[in-house]
UniProtKB/TrEMBL annotation:
SMART domains with a match to the protein in the record: Resolvase
InterPro entries per record: DNA_bind_recomb_sf, DNA_bind_recombinase_dom, Resolv_N, Resolvase-like_N_sf, SSR_resolvase
Keyword field: Coiled coil
Domain Recombinase: 163-282
UniProt name for this protein: Recombinase family protein
Any coiled-coil regions, as ranges: 360-398
Protein's UniProt keywords contain Disulfide bond: no
PROSITE patterns reported in the protein's UniProt record: RECOMBINASE_DNA_BIND
Length: 505
């Protein structure tokens, strides 16, 4: 609605929001003052939200916008002046909420950049306008992401600090590792492949190689999960809302770079990444094998059939107990009202006797049963993939038809009707595309599980190797994690060992 024949009366206020640049504020205020003077309007108080992005910060988190809405309900002014509708929101839902509330209160909002009134008069038109406001914000983000994506695919580095251990050689125009860092990085990757955790790797690194600061597990993780050390650039590794998180590799963009002198091979990096993914997904237990407590995270205290809390592992300490104990390790019930404990040495002796019987008598049967279970899981995974693929074929056909409809709408003589129909069809096509992307992510997740089953769990003699190696190397911790489901301790310290499969003959 044009402002020319609808000049509001009474006292008005001004709302300004800008993200970063001072010029943005000056442009908005200058335009508002010009319109205010042109139509002889009175509006002196300014509601200001500086340094705030409407895309990233919802309206209920912007203090002065909330104050503006509350003052409007209190009847403190008769109209609002702002530069443009995108100062209020870049989300169609928020636009609709603000517009409906202001219409209910009878308070018009004047958009000074176009000298129009932000109202509910043309609902469809406003929905389209709000959608394009949101679309504009998304386009800005998309252009930035496309630029970053292109540079990554081309193997080009971005601004910011280089990964640990690398410097830029002006003469060769390459990113080269320092000799010391090269040694330590190789050791980190080798240690991780041996089963060491990020924490244990960090504990063994010299602080001199980290600018005199203590190494952390987060620092080590950032190195192990970075393909730069294998000669690749990458972007979109982390979730912007949670910088410490790591997204699935399928969402990254990577590129080969002849400017990076690699420390390890891509095959070595992929092996470490595969192990990291297995631990994160729980395929390989994240609890490390390097612990003196063989039953850690396996042993439970029996309260009832429905209540069997985990028992914590700790060192026994009781000043009143005069006994001199060679082995002070104990497992203690985690329930606040239960203090039941059992000495680790006693519990582990019973469990190892039970496991020894399984090793010598039923290893072949256990392997066969596990193989049967894994083959059944493979069939279910493959069936799920076929279902997702079929759904995607149908969605792709609908996307194709939506594209044809969009072309037809573009050729309509009635441009206003064409604009509305195109907007609706664009939203429909976007929803279909998002479904396809979601299904593809699920397909990739199931393919990774299939690959792991085929490459590791179904390899011939895998379980026989685990059993024999555990006996020979005394690596019983690894064996227990694979073989046992839980160990239950009763009040009289009798125990029940529960295997992952039925081990009765």
């Amino acid at each position: 609605m044009s402002l020319h024949n609808n000049i509001p009366q009474g006292i008005g206020v001004i709302y300004v929001r800008y993200s970063t640049k001072k010029q943005e504020k000056e442009l908005q205020v200058g335009t508002i003052e010009r319109v205010k003077k042109k139509y002889n309007m009175t509006a002196d108080e300014i509601y200001l939200d500086p340094g705030v992005s409407a895309t990233k910060v919802p309206k209920d988190k912007r203090p002065d916008l909330q104050r503006l809405l509350n003052d409007a309900k209190a009847g403190k002014f008769q109209y609002i002046l702002t530069y443009n509708s995108d100062r209020l929101a870049r989300n169609a839902t928020e636009h609709r909420e603000i517009r409906v509330e202001m219409a209910r209160l009878g308070i018009p909002i004047i958009l000074c950049s176009t000298e129009t009134i932000y109202d509910t008069g043309d609902l469809v038109g406003q929905l389209v306008q709000d959608g394009f406001t949101q679309f504009e914000a998304e386009q800005i983000r998309a252009r930035t992401r496309d630029m970053v994506r292109t540079r990554a695919v081309q193997g080009k580095w971005f601004s910011g600090p280089l990964p640990y251990g690398y410097t830029f050689n002006e003469k060769t125009q390459q990113y080269e590792p320092t000799p010391e860092a090269k040694v330590h990085v190789k050791e980190m990757f080798a240690a991780y492949m041996r089963g060491q955790s990020f924490s244990s790797i960090a504990a063994g690194l010299p602080i001199e190689q980290n600018h005199g600061r203590k190494w952390t597990k987060e620092r080590v993780r950032s190195i192990i999960t970075n393909p730069f050390y294998a000669g690749k650039t990458r972007v979109f590794k982390s979730n912007p809302k949670s910088p410490n998180s790591i997204l699935p590799k399928e969402k990254w963009v990577m590129g080969d770079s002849d400017k990076i002198v690699p420390i390890i091979t891509m095959e070595q990096w992929e092996q470490c990444w595969h192990l990291f993914e297995q631990k994160r997904q729980g395929i390989v237990p994240p609890r490390t094998f390097n612990t003196p407590y063989l039953l850690k995270d396996l042993i439970h205290c029996y309260h009832s059939d429905e209540d069997q809390p985990l028992m914590f592992s700790k060192n026994y300490s009781n000043p009143s107990d005069k006994r001199k104990l060679r082995d002070r390790r104990v497992y203690v019930c985690s329930h606040p009202s239960c203090n039941h404990k059992i000495f680790a040495e006693d519990a582990e002796r019973v469990v190892l006797q039970e496991v020894e019987a399984i090793i010598y008598r039923q290893a072949e049967r256990i392997g066969a049963e596990l193989k049967r279970q894994l083959e059944h899981e493979l069939k279910e995974l493959q069936e799920a993939i076929r279902s997702f693929q079929k759904a995607n074929e149908e969605n792709e056909m609908l996307i194709y038809r939506a594209g044809r409809e969009l072309k037809a709408f573009a050729e309509m003589e009635n441009k206003e009707e064409s604009k509305t129909l195109r907007y609706v069809m664009l939203q429909y096509r976007l929803e279909l595309q998002q479904k396809v992307q979601s299904n593809n992510a699920l397909i990739e997740e199931k393919k990774r599980r299939i690959q792991y089953i085929n490459d590791v769990e179904l390899k011939s003699n895998t379980w026989a190797d685990v059993l024999s190696e555990a006996e020979e190397s005394k690596d019983m911790r690894r064996l227990l994690l694979y073989l046992l489901k839980e160990v239950i301790v009763y009040s009289n310290n009798t125990m029940k060992v529960v295997a992952r499969i039925d081990t009765e003959m």
